[in-house]
Design a protein that fits this description.
The protein is α+β, with helices and mostly antiparallel strands. The protein has a 5-stranded mixed sheet with strand order 55-61-60-57-58, with no helix packed on it. A 5-stranded mixed sheet has the order 63-65-66-68-67. Strands 1-24-23-22 form a 4-stranded antiparallel sheet, with no helix packed on it. Strand 10 and strand 11 form a beta hairpin. Helix 3 runs antiparallel to helix 4.
């Protein structure tokens, strides 16, 4: 018999023996755990206690000091000069300060990564620190005297470490320990007793604790003689009668009760049974979680991670209690697994074929023929398992492998409708038809490409090659279309209940194919750890599990969320080789053993990571200085050092940072050192957040605000000074311009005023000349009465004109009075030939003292009507002077029924051309000057005509 055959026979015997005699422990497989040792950075492999601070960092006390663990590395705490670094006793307060004592009796406080020696008051002489406890802001330290029968408990105020009180406990043969138990023999183990479960007083040991064989635990009394556990939780006692000798083939040294359904048993009595067991008091069953290790202490994180310290093996952590090894295939590469009829068929890299019952893990069949070293898979054909090897297909019959079909370089085999087998080779794919006697009847080549994957959708055989996806139906081979323009190296094909084809590829990720217009691609952007995948199963309606060379990818098709299961979660290898599901459990084949997990318990790492900025510096002159909240513009190279905690993420850290003041977008990095270069002056807020390996973010980003001062020539005071100077210069310049404009305006006003006065002065002699002519005409005809009346009214009018010519504005009341005098003179001059009508609107009369107008504007227009229109009219002349309000503006109308302007021009042609009538033009010039191009004052002249176009007079309108 060959050595390999002997190995398989011994292994077969061991598996059968284990299945028969150790069924009690195989109800659940051994959970997967990680082991950290001094090679990972632990100061010592002898570890005592584990504590978690409020930030989530773990602190571990060891035989060679204390370290902090953030999930990536163990950082040893720098301790002051101590006589010993062996730190078995410790306690942590609510703020995260760790108080720890060494075997030399020295007490140290660790806060973060800093430490200092604590000198206590009333330190008892000739005594040794045995335990440390913290309760209700009181630091409780227990000392063992040299008599080894007296234990003193000293209480100190935790705030300032001032002495409060002392208890004296004397109990012969019993010692209060610090780690895991209390026994008559201090040599074997100790236990840490917490106040609150039991009072620390002499009365505690006066009950049945004093019986021979009893052991006291934190909240448990164990009597090995009566096999009784007494559980006390806040003064409520529950008794559990357990026959340990019947149910547990080992001596229980320590018990930790988490609840009535989960109890942790620790055994350190016999090397063959060293380890940790979980038990259920109701079912009287148990299973081992740590095997062959002498355990010192235990800690469970809020995320249900189990951490164990050991005497000489470092730290053990169970990241996920639901993940367990399949012992029959531990530490071996699994190349195939499949579930059929409640049995799991597994094949390892050495060719060992094992068939297990998935309910109790009992071996049903084991094939260890030496030729199985080349086995690829197992296919069920006509209710029989056929074993596929590289050189052919075989059936296990008569305790040996018998050939069914032989060929070379087989890669994969598919059963199709129990009549045919589709075989993939290194150079193509064949369809092999069998007759009723399982003899080969026909072989047909259907594809000449290297292929590794086969499946079928309805009646179409799916052919996965190294050049893409092909189909075979109705004796025809065709290529599937609709893929991106790259070659597909297909490693696995899977068809779900909705007939979607799931394609695993080498280098192109995962593809879901419904038709050529409905193709979805899954890759790194969707969270896949690698583009090389080789297996896929549906866990439930929404979730799929995909095996890659960098871990197992769990993806939710509905929520689009995903996470990765890998060595960080306890897997013994990141290389997933094969997958199967029985509906309740997922069976994961890896390069280092088989793992199974309850599908309902497949969840991402729930631990919320933490990030902080541990160092803030700036570079100046080649040296680094501590960053303050305000620095100069020359110190614009900023360096931030980050620290984060994610206990299961390992060194996988996904940091995202941004600098508000530059950009609000987050930048991804895996570096814990972030440099900001060439920052301009201004105010900035640096923010950073971290995600764990499954994409769970920290609660709040860490941030730091700082300001870079600008150079002096860019400061506000400098800008203010420049603005002040420029503003002063502008003000001075504007003042000069304003002064010049004022002078110019004053001169212009004076010119306009002089001009207006000149225009007014032009009218006076003109009117006087005309009036004197009228008086002369009266005297010529010896009409002395009218001459004297005219002369009297003329004198009064002259006084009014002289008075008005001295002012810029007069009231409409004064203007009307002056016009009445003037019109009466004209009526006398025309001897009743002209009917003069003066019409004043009621609104004008009501406000005649408030309405102000320039003087001597209307009189020249009236004069013009008399002289040019009515003078040549003869009898029947009419002159109307009207004052009214239109659109809140004064409107003056002078209307006559004279001969009109055109006829007047013809009559006046005989006059001396050197004579110019200046009355109307002067008025128009005055209006233009007074309006100053504002468009408010207007003069409008309308020629009046009858229906036949014959002139009937003139109308002149002035708007004020």
């Amino acid at each position: 018999m060959s050595k390999l055959g002997l190995y398989y026979r011994i292994r077969t015997f061991f598996i059968i023996f284990s299945s028969t005699f150790l069924m009690a422990t195989l109800e659940a497989q051994l959970p997967l755990y990680k082991n950290f040792t001094d090679e990972d950075g632990l100061p010592s492999n002898t570890t005592y206690q584990i504590f978690e601070d409020p930030k989530g960092y773990l602190y571990i006390t060891t035989a060679k000091g204390i370290c902090r663990f953030d999930g990536a590395e163990f950082v040893k705490i720098n301790l002051p000069n101590l006589q010993s670094e062996d730190m078995p006793m410790a306690a942590m307060d609510s703020q995260g300060r760790l108080f720890t004592a060494n075997l030399a009796g020295e007490l140290v406080c660790v806060d973060g990564l800093n430490s200092k020696i604590i000198n206590l008051e009333n330190y008892p002489q000739n005594s040794t620190i045995k335990s440390i406890d913290i309760l209700n802001n009181i630091l409780r330290i227990r000392f063992l005297t040299h008599l080894k029968s007296e234990v003193y408990t000293f209480d100190y105020n935790l705030k300032d470490l001032k002495f409060l009180r002392i208890f004296n406990i004397s109990n012969s043969g019993y010692f209060i320990g610090e780690l895991l138990g209390l026994s008559k023999s201090e040599k074997y183990f100790n236990i840490y007793i917490k106040e609150g479960t039991y009072s620390v007083s002499g009365k505690i040991f006066k009950e049945d604790i004093m019986k021979n064989g009893s052991i006291f635990f934190p909240n448990v009394l164990l009597n090995n003689d009566t096999n009784t556990v007494k559980y006390n939780d806040y003064n409520l006692e529950t008794r559990f009668d357990i026959n340990f000798k019947t149910h547990y083939p080992f001596v229980v040294n320590s018990i930790i009760i988490k609840d009535t359904n989960r109890i942790i048993l620790i055994n350190n009595s016999k090397e063959t049974h060293y380890g940790v067991y979980l038990t259920n008091l109701d079912k009287n069953n148990y299973y081992q979680v740590i095997k062959g290790i002498k355990i010192n202490n235990y800690y469970e994180t809020p995320q249900k991670q189990l951490w164990f310290t050991s005497s000489d093996k470092g730290i053990f952590v169970i990241p996920n209690i639901s993940l367990s090894k399949v012992e029959e295939f531990a530490n071996e590469k699994i190349i195939f697994n499949s579930i059929s009829n409640n049995n799991m068929i597994c094949i390892n890299a050495n060719g060992l074929i094992n068939e297990l019952n998935i309910h109790n893990n009992q071996s049903i069949k084991l094939i260890n023929d030496i030729s199985t070293s080349n086995i690829i898979s197992v296919v069920n054909f006509r209710n029989k398992n056929l074993y596929v090897f590289k050189h052919g297909i075989f059936e296990w019959k008569y305790k040996k492998l018998l050939p069914v079909f032989e060929n070379q370089n087989i890669k994969y085999v598919l059963n199709f409708k129990n009549n045919s087998i589709i075989a993939a080779y290194g150079n193509g794919i064949e369809k092999i038809d069998f007759n009723n006697k399982n003899k080969v009847e026909k072989i047909k080549n259907i594809l000449l490409l290297r292929s590794y994957a086969l499946n079928h959708r309805n009646d179409t055989i799916l052919l996965g090659s190294t050049k893409g996806l092909y189909g075979f139906a109705k004796d025809l081979t065709f290529q599937f279309k609709g893929f991106k323009n790259f070659e597909l190296y297909i490693t696995k094909l899977y068809v779900d209940s909705l007939k979607t084809i799931w394609i695993c590829t080498d280098g192109k990720g995962l593809i879901a194919y419904n038709n050529e217009k409905d193709v979805k691609y899954f890759g790194l952007s969707e969270g896949m750890p690698s583009l090389n995948c080789n297996n896929i199963v549906h866990l439930d309606v929404n979730r799929i599990a995909v095996g890659t060379d960098k871990g197992l990818w769990i993806y939710n098709l509905k929520s689009k969320n995903s996470f990765i299961l890998n060595k960080l979660d306890g897997l013994s290898s990141n290389e997933i080789t094969t997958l199967s599901s029985d509906g309740s459990y997922l069976w994961i084949g890896t390069a280092n053993g088989m793992v199974k997990c309850k599908i309902d318990e497949l969840k991402p790492n729930p631990e919320i990571p933490f990030v902080e900025i541990t160092k803030k510096e700036y570079e100046f002159g080649g040296n680094l200085f501590e960053l303050t909240d305000k620095i100069s513009y020359q110190q614009n190279r900023i360096i931030f050092q980050l620290s984060s905690r994610s206990l299961l993420a390992g060194k996988t850290r996904n940091y995202f940072y941004r600098v508000i003041g530059i950009d609000t977008n987050w930048i991804r990095t895996s570096d814990q050192k972030i440099e900001l270069l060439g920052l301009k002056s201004g105010s900035y807020i640096f923010e950073v957040k971290v995600y764990n390996e499954d994409g769970v973010p920290c609660l709040t980003p860490a941030s730091y605000s700082f300001t870079i001062s600008p150079p002096w020539w860019r400061t506000i005071w400098f800008y203010s000074l420049i603005i002040l100077l420029i503003g002063g210069a502008i003000f001075w310049w504007l003042k000069i311009i304003k002064k010049r404009e004022a002078q110019k305006y004053q001169v212009q006003n004076q010119i306009n005023e002089f001009r207006q006065q000149a225009l007014q002065s032009q009218m006076n002699p003109h009117f006087i000349f005309n009036s004197l002519n009228a008086i002369q005409s009266f005297l010529t005809i010896n009409d002395e009465k009218n001459a004297m009346l005219y002369l009297s009214k003329f004198g009064r009018l002259i006084r009014l004109i002289f008075d008005q010519s001295k002012v810029k504005l007069i009231s409409i009341e004064d203007e009307i009075e002056m016009l009445k005098n003037y019109l009466e003179l004209e009526k006398l001059r025309f001897k009743g030939k002209v009917d003069v009508r003066l019409v004043i609107d009621k609104e004008v009369k009501a406000n005649e003292q408030d309405i102000m107008i320039p003087p001597l504007l209307i009189q020249p227009i009236i004069e013009n009507s008399f002289r040019h229109g009515l003078f040549h009219k003869g009898e029947g002349g009419i002159l109307e002077v009207i004052f009214t309000i239109e659109n809140n503006r004064l409107k003056s109308i002078v209307r006559d029924n004279g001969i009109g302007r055109m006829k007047s021009k013809e009559i006046n042609k005989w006059r001396d051309r050197s004579h110019k009538s200046s009355g109307l033009s002067t008025t128009m010039d005055r209006i233009k000057i007074l309006d100053n191009n504002q468009g408010i004052m207007k003069l409008i002249i309308n020629d009046l005509e009858d229906q036949n176009g014959i002139p009937t007079g003139t109308e002149t309108i002035i708007y004020f």
